[in-house]
Design a protein that fits this description.
Length: about 110
Amino acid sequence: MKSVQVIGLVALVAILAAGCATKSEGEVNLRQGRGMGMGMYSALDATAQVYSNPRAQVPVDDNPWRWLGFVMHPIGVGLDYAINRPAYALASAFPYLFGYTSEDVLVNSERP
């Protein structure tokens, strides 16, 4: 059993050392000059080359459903305070009648 742990530890160290010893893709592209301007983009930014139109990144011209969400959010919060919270208060007052359980207590206690 001890030998299996030692072999696993050695394998883990070898994998980590080999992964850290390789060159990243960005370094190779910058040094070899492959790709037209590929080195200036981050490898982690997947949208850097997809959105060439600056207006596509501006949130002002965003989806109209987002604006509807901004308008409807205060209405939803108002309905939560007007309907849901009093319903939870009523159910917690008579748990045997409404089937209010300990899970409901947890959900209700996590509300701001």
